[in-house]
Amino acid sequence: MEMINVALPKGRLGEKVYDMFEKSGFPCPSIKEPNRKLIFENEAAGVRYFWVKPSDVAIYVERGAADIGVAGKDILLEYEPDVYELLDLNLGKCRMAVAAKKDFRDDPNSTLRVATKFTNIASRYYAEKCRDIDIIKLNGSIEIAPILGLSDVIVDIVETGKTLLENDLEPKETILPISARLIANKSSYKFKNELIERVRLGLKEQVKTDD
After folding, report:
1. If I label 38, which of 54, 104, 154, 208 is the partner at 20 to 30 A Cα–Cα?
2. Within this chain, do residues 107 and 42 fall inside the same structural domain, yes or no?
3. Residue 151 belongs to a domain
4. SS (H, E, C) 13-44
5. What CATH number is given to the structural domain containing 46?
6. Comparing C-alpha atoms, which of 164, 169, 87, 81 is closest to residue 120?
7. Which tens digit of pLDDT belongs to each residue from 95-105?
């Protein structure tokens, strides 16, 4: 029987996504057992799942180790993997935003120092505004950059805004909304089209849309 390989993001989002796959007719009960395994398969259902770091899902799919996977729109925009985006799952919703100290006022005559791990998204956003910027790539604790004077603003994912508030920062501009997307390897989509479409339609029926 033809198998479909699915890369799931580790963590709460991945668990929610798996539940959607299960309800779509692609169950794999062993995935819910308490163990440290990373790969699970159910031959009868024709599916093999594996847990990967959320930021790596797109790499597994792009290079064909996975036929399909679920990745955040932030990852797709930042790294621009060569994959098909099939469906917005309306899960893991947050936004990419510019944040700064509450009293920050932008001076358009000076170069804006932007700390972020999303360098491509930030660069494109400010290029569209014709704003001269200096990108400072950081990998963690981005919120402290403006506090310590390393940057004027940060570009980061904002879910509730609580972390910003606790660090005396506030969102200044929303760049774009973010949610989890179903993606497919281009070759797999061609050769396993029927199976992938079955998954896509099954998931689509469960997508909760905002009223």
Report:
1. 208
2. no
3. yes
4. HHHHHHHHHHHCCCCCHHHHCCCCCCEEEECC
5. 3.40.190.10
6. 81
7. 999 999 999 99
CB atoms within 10 A of CB 48: 17
* 192 and 133 in a common domain: no
Give the pLDDT confidence of 110-127 residue by residue, as tens digits: 999 999 999 999 999 999
CA quadruple 63, 189, 22, 159: dihedral, nearest 10: 60
Gyration radius (Cα) of the chain, Å:
20
Q: Which of 158, 100, 155 is nearest to 122 (CA)?
A: 155
Q: Are residues 123 and 48 in the same domain?
A: no
Sorted by sequence, the CB contacts under 8 Å of residue 165 that are 6+ apart come out as: none
pTM of the model: 0.91
Structural domain harbouring 104: 94-178
Answer yes or no: do 41 and 108 share one domain. Answer: no
Say whether both 107 and 160 belong to one domain.
yes
Average pLDDT of 167-171?
Answer: 92
The torsion angle over the Cα atoms of residues 11, 14, 15 and 21, rounded to 10 degrees, is -170
Instruction: Calculate the alpha carbon distances from 112 to 124, 131, 135, 148, 173 in Å.
Output: 14, 8, 8, 15, 14
